[in-house]
Amino acid sequence: MREVYFENHSNTKLDEQIFAEMLPFLKENYGNAQSMHSLGNKSKDAMENARKQAASLINCKEGEIYFTSCASESNNLAIKGIAKANQLKGKHIIVSSIEHFSVLYSARRLGQNGFDITYLPVDKYGFIYPEDLKKAIREDTILVSIQHANPEIGTIQPIEEISKIVHQRGILFHTDAVCTAGVIPVDVNKSGIDLLTLSGSQFYGPKGAAALYIKDGIKITPQIDGGIQENGRRAGTENVPCIVGFGKACEIIKKEMESNYKKVINLRDRLIQELPKAIDFVYLNGPIEKRLPNNVNFSIEFVEGEGMFLFLDQRGIYLSSGSACTSKSLKMSHVLSAVNIDPALGQGSILMTLSKYNDDQDIDYFLYEFPSIVKKLRNMSPLYSYFEKTGKRHAAGPGTDYEHEEAHHEKEVCE
Amino acid sequence: MAFYSEKVMNHFQNPRNVGEIKDADGIGEVGNPVCGDMMTFYIKVKDDKLEDVKFKTFGCGAAIAVSSMVSEIAIGKTLEEAMNITNAMVAKELGGLPPNKMHCSNLGATALHKAIEDYKNKQKEKK
After folding, report:
1. Minimum Cα–Cα distance from A348: chain B residue
2. Catalytic pick from B72, B102, B104, B117?
3. Which of A3, A226, A313, B73 has the highest count of CB atoms within 10 angstroms of its CB?
4. DSSP state for residue A389 in the 8-state scheme
5. What angle (nearest 5°) sits at the alpha carbon of residue A230, between those of residues A229 and A236?
6. Buried residues in A237-251 as b, exposed as e (16+ CB within 10 A)
7. Containing domain of residue A345, as a range?
8. Backbone phi, psi, residue A197, to 5°
9. Count of the separate structural domains present in chain B
10. What is the pLDDT of residues A225-235, one digit of tens each?
11. Inter-chain contact A325–B105, Cβ cutoff 8 Å?
12. SS3 state at A284
């Protein structure tokens, strides 16, 4: 059976060239990068080379790259570390409401410990309103953290505009660029970024290494104490094989970015154009313009995401859904809630994220298999039979073609 | 390990008794699309027994499998027996459900009971 992997925002497939680069550091070059002997030096040199490669990808100095274990750690360090180091200046932090949980929960934790957090709303496509940001900034604001792009609905935020607003008020700006670094050009100098999170596992590197860019001269309090590693800002024995892989991933992606971009955006646009022709009552979530080139998110009306997910899984098609049932917390995706999607439509969302390893045959296979799955589930759906009989929806609202429809759409309470 | 048991997957992929009964004697509905699960049960009663049970379900794999299993257990049972089917029994018959699905998706027996109550209420009105 064909296997189609459409969940590249969760993790990409490791590039063989990158694996080959890592291998010696899993075998013969096992020295601790902090050891003074020759074996340690080999690890140290490889790690510093990776730092150069990462710096070159986002156009910063190599000394401004701090390796971490994952993007969640980078986000925790950025939010909590800046808050702690700057709390005498103020205790107010601004984040968007569609950030990754590692930003949102870090902010919430600070909120429980005497900080004040503002969560900026977004419009129906996921864009923040710059005017909201201007209004939210206070005398005691010390940090603004807004992601470069959203992994779920693909919205690319105007970070240069945001950076200008933030810097006019002398505040620090962090951006989570996990979805953009390695996918579209990211330039911290040009965009005016103070702190930026990136992760190699998003562009064919291994899990286990990520980085936080911290502009020279910015004070930050470590979140892992206990050693001199990473200039004293992140203790712990360095994961040299993964850091080497991360560096190589940065080097390769810099060369491949343009061709990868063309490839995935063609596949993305095929899905966006052809899926609505294959299936009725489907709605694109997120914007058309200023959208990640590898992101597709549709709501399929009258069916629930997990059912689609399970049937697709059995046909070797791997993707994800923003439905409550597929989340371990049993809550609908916070991103879909923030863009104010009709809750019934949110339950029927599917997310497909593409990589350089996808091709037209993957799209053909998906478009061939998917309509029969939706048909099968719709035939089981009481919402669909109600619609077929009455022409009305049980719940229709924002995001559908039928926004005007008077549906009995009370705020229903889930037990 | 797979998220669902083999039995759940079997009922999810080949659900028994999907559909509606046009002249149903009772209809029961639970849940709502906002929560992610909604089940509608239709019953046909003859001589105090469930002659036919059909359902339509909007929801996750567990919700569909539960509905299917309830319909299978219930057909042929007396109304009293059917009222004694519990959600816990259904989960057990399915070889267990993931802990986080025990509450929200496991409402099939409740929907069936509602359909039987609907039938009983209609009978009272007739008298």
Report:
1. B36
2. B104
3. B73
4. H
5. 40
6. ebbbbbbbbbbbbbb
7. 257-390
8. -100, 130
9. 1
10. 998 999 999 99
11. yes
12. strand
- Identify the CA nearest to A350 among candidates A404, A302, A284, A398: A284
B1 has a chain A CB within 8 A of its CB: no
> Which domain, by its residues, includes B51?
6-126
CB contact under 8 A, A304 and B60: yes
The structural domain count of chain A equals 2
Burial of B93 (0-12, 13-18, 19+ CB in 10 A): middle
The pLDDT value recorded for residue A408 is 37
Contact A305, A348 (CB under 8 A): yes
Give yes or no: residues A108 and A134 share one domain: yes
Supply the pLDDT for residue A326: 67
User: Strands of A295-300's sheet, edge to edge?
Assistant: A282-284, A295-300, A349-353
C-alpha span between A69 and A216 (Å, rounded): 21
Q: What are phi and psi of A116, to 5 degrees?
A: -110, 125
**Which residue in the block uniquely carries the two structure tokens 């992606």?**
A253
Asked, for residue A33, whether it belongs to a domain, the answer is: yes
Is the same domain home to A117 and A178?
Answer: yes
Report residue A166: phi and psi, to 5°.
-65, -45
Distance from CA of B65 to the nearest CA of A (A): 11
SS3 A301: coil
Would you say A397 and A407 are in contact if contact means Cβ atoms under 8 Å apart? yes
Together in a domain, A142 and A195 = yes
- For residue B18, the distance in angstroms to the closest alpha carbon of chain A comes to 6
Query: CA A325, CA B58: separation in Å to the nearest integer?
Result: 11
Check B64 against A307: CB less than 8 A apart. yes
Each residue's pLDDT tens digit, A64-119: 999 999 999 999 999 999 999 999 999 999 999 999 999 999 999 999 999 999 99
Quick one: pLDDT at residue B37?
A: 84
| A411 within some domain | no
